[in-house]
Specification:
There is one protein chain. By secondary structure, the protein is mostly loops. It is built from three helices and no strands. The protein folds into two domains: about 120 residues, Pectate Lyase C-like, CATH 2.160.20.80; about 130 residues, E3 ubiquitin-protein ligase SopA (Pectate Lyase C-like, 3 Solenoid). The radius of gyration is 25 Å and the shape is elongated.
């Protein structure tokens, strides 16, 4: 039998704690290898097979992981800062607490990966595939997720300050309590996404699809939602103060008790929308925004409704503000 002279066949070997700093491991076979705490900083692992490898706590900072296969790998607490993981495959990998700061991860695959508390601040994740990824509490500050696929991703409490999500797909994603202040989501698809109590203030949301999304108690203060599709969405108790909704569709949406002080409703479709407890009295609203589209199913706010369904103090506050202020300066609650 011929002797195996393939020096890059390291399948299943125990290399835990080894220093492989700057090693040439391009195309190496490292599936199921044990590399716990190994030093792989600056190593060339491009095209390497690390399927189901144990890289817990390993140092992969600055490593070349271009098109590497890491499906099912364990990278808990690993250091991957400044690595090049372009087109790498992390499907079903465990990346709990891993640090990817400033990494290149465009077109990388993280489908169904376990990634709670992962740090991906300042990473390039353009066109990455993160469908079903578990990103609870993930830090994605200033990350570029343009055109990324995040359908069904779990992003509860994720930090997405100043993140770029233009054209991203977040259908059925869990963004409850997520922090998206100043994020860019223009053209993003959030069909049936859940954003309960999320902070989406000062965000760019033009041409977004929020159809049937849960935005209850979310903050959209000072955000731009021009031409957004928000039909059938739940916006009850949401904060929309000074938001730009010009040209948006709110058809059949629920805005019960939403804060609308200074909100721009130019050319907005509110057909069959629930506007109760918003202070959006029909006469006042149409006097300010004569091009609002409504129907006989639109539920305008009325004093009778407020008196029957709200506390006397809250109802009186809205009544007093409608009487003494213009539409743009009303403050509710």
């Amino acid at each position: 039998m011929a002797k195996n002279t393939d020096k890059k066949n390291l399948t299943g070997l125990n290399l835990s704690g080894y220093s492989l700093l700057g090693s040439d491991l391009a195309g190496a076979k490292l599936s199921q290898a044990k590399l716990r705490g190994a030093d792989l900083a600056g190593a060339d692992l491009s095209g390497a097979d690390l399927t189901e490898a144990d890289l817990t706590g390993a140092d992969l900072s600055g490593a070349d992981l271009y098109q590497a296969k890491l499906s099912g790998a364990r990278l808990n607490g690993a250091n991957l800062t400044h690595c090049d993981g372009t087109s790498a495959d992390f499907t079903d990998a465990n990346l709990s607490g891993a640090h990817f700061g400033f990494a290149k991860l465009s077109s990388a695959i993280f489908i169904n990966a376990t990634m709670p508390a992962v740090n991906m601040s300042d990473c390039d994740l353009t066109s990455a595939q993160l469908e079903g990824a578990k990103l609870t509490g993930a830090v994605l500050v200033r990350a570029n997720l343009s055109d990324a696929k995040l359908d069904r991703a779990k992003l509860f409490g994720a930090q997405l300050l100043d993140a770029k999500l233009s054209g991203a797909s977040l259908r059925n994603a869990d963004l409850n309590s997520a922090y998206l202040r100043s994020a860019k989501l223009d053209g993003a698809d959030l069909l049936k996404a859940s954003l309960f109590s999320a902070d989406i203030s000062q965000a760019l949301l033009t041409n977004c699809n929020f159809e049937a999304a849960n935005l209850r108690a979310s903050s959209l203060t000072n955000s731009s939602l021009a031409s957004a599709m928000i039909a059938g969405a739940n916006l009850s108790n949401a904060r929309l103060s000074r938001a730009d909704l010009s040209g948006a569709s709110l058809e059949e949406s629920n805005l019960w008790a939403a804060k609308t002080s200074g909100t721009n409703f130019n050319n907005v479709n509110v057909k069959a929308a629930n506007l109760n407890a918003t202070g959006l009295n029909k006469d006042f609203a149409l006097a300010e925004f004569s091009d609002m589209k409504f129907s006989n199913r639109t539920q305008w706010d009325t004093g009778d409704y407020r008196r029957q369904n709200m506390s006397a103090a809250h109802a009186k506050t809205i009544d007093d503000e409608i009487k003494k202020r213009s539409f743009f300066s009303r403050i509710f609650g």
